[in-house]
């Protein structure tokens, strides 16, 4: 475990035992870490080892399915953000990212692929994948959303002396957030797992294979390993939270390197409500936050549409960003 990245125990927010005093000191520790490194190891998160192991096992089952079955459910222009991400078909830069993934969100009962909005639609599971596997993945999704809501309360308490102050931006977060489960392959010439970037959303939670290597954070002009065990989830401040706090909390630059060992990880991109407007939360186009990945052009050709970001809805910005990192072969 990297000693640079602080551990914060958030049990004051995830159990009934938290007193006002313990919640205040937890909140302060959390915000101190997010204003410094921007990344924190969260303990006391309440996600059982059983839920974590079951989800990792289901992910391995999914990735082991025949390629044709996985590709039958791949992310495309019609289905938007959910489904299978074939190897090499996504990258945040011109480098080849040697990984495959499944992207999913809140399970809807709908049997059609009707979208509610570009971030809310039915999940797409390849066959054969049993309902018990889907349930295990969904259990992890809802557990990690609960952890993000607890973190949101803590951040609200530290910044505004009010636990509910940021929750109003997150009333539909559990419906529009995106879980991505990745299978990083072995290192090959010129490839990496994930190009250096900041995350675009409100908060990100990362749950990798316990004790696996690869996640790195850029601090003090150097890359540092972030090692993780089942006791901790890695939480990143996202670009939206940086905007919301006028830069007081900072979204960290991080990347994933590859090795000779394959790796599986779950990454929850916790989003604010789809319709949230950047201008309403204080962003102006003159802001000095242009280095965030949210504002970078991540298309290969460098012709990403520079939209009037401060007027746009957060959900639409996300759809545009996911389109920017698609690398259809
Ligand atoms: O898989 C990981 O450890 C992190 C991946 C990541 O940073 C991302 O997908 O944004
Ligand atoms: Fe990331």
UniProtKB/TrEMBL annotation:
Record keywords, A-Z: Iron, Metal-binding, Oxidoreductase
Q: Does the keyword Iron apply?
A: yes
Family matches, as SUPFAM superfamilies? Clavaminate synthase-like
Pfam families recorded for this chain? Answer: 2OG-FeII_Oxy (PF03171), DIOX_N (PF14226)
Q: Under the GO molecular function aspect, what terms does this record hold?
A: metal ion binding; oxidoreductase activity
Domain Fe2OG dioxygenase stretches: 175-272
Family listed: Belongs to the iron/ascorbate-dependent oxidoreductase family.
> What protein name is recorded for this chain?
Fe2OG dioxygenase domain-containing protein
């Amino acid at each position: 475990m990297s000693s640079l990245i602080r551990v914060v125990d958030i049990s004051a927010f995830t159990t009934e035992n938290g007193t006002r005093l313990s919640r205040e000191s937890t909140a302060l520790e959390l915000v101190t870490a997010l204003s410094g490194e921007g990344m924190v190891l969260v303990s006391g998160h309440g996600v059982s080892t059983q839920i974590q192991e079951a989800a990792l096992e289901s992910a391995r089952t999914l990735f082991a399915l025949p390629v044709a079955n996985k590709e039958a459910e791949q992310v495309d222009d019609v289905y938007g953000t959910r489904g299978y991400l074939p190897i090499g078909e996504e990258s945040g830069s011109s480098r080849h990212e040697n990984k495959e993934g499944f992207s999913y969100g809140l399970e809807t009962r709908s049997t059609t692929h009707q979208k509610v909005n570009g971030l809310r639609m039915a999940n797409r599971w390849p066959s054969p994948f049993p309902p018990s596997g889907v349930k295990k993945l969904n259990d992890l999704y809802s557990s990690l959303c609960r952890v993000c809501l607890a973190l949101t309360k803590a951040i609200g308490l530290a910044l505004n002396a009010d636990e509910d102050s940021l929750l109003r931006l997150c009333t539909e977060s559990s419906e529009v957030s995106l879980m991505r489960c990745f299978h990083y392959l072995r290192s090959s010439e010129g490839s990496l797992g994930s190009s250096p970037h900041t995350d675009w959303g409100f908060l990100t939670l990362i749950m990798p294979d316990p004790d696996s290597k690869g996640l790195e954070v850029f601090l003090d002009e150097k890359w540092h390993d972030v090692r993780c065990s089942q006791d901790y989830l890695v939480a990143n401040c996202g670009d939206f939270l940086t905007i919301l706090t006028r830069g007081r909390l900072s979204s960290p630059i991080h990347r994933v390197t590859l090795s000779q060992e394959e790796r599986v990880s779950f990454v929850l991109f916790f989003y604010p409500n789809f319709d949230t407007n950047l201008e309403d939360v204080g962003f102006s186009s003159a802001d000095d936050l242009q280095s965030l990945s949210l504002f970078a052009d991540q298309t290969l050709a460098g012709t990403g549409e520079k939209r009037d970001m401060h007027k746009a809805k957060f959900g639409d910005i996300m759809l545009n960003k996911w389109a920017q990192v698609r690398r259809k072969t």
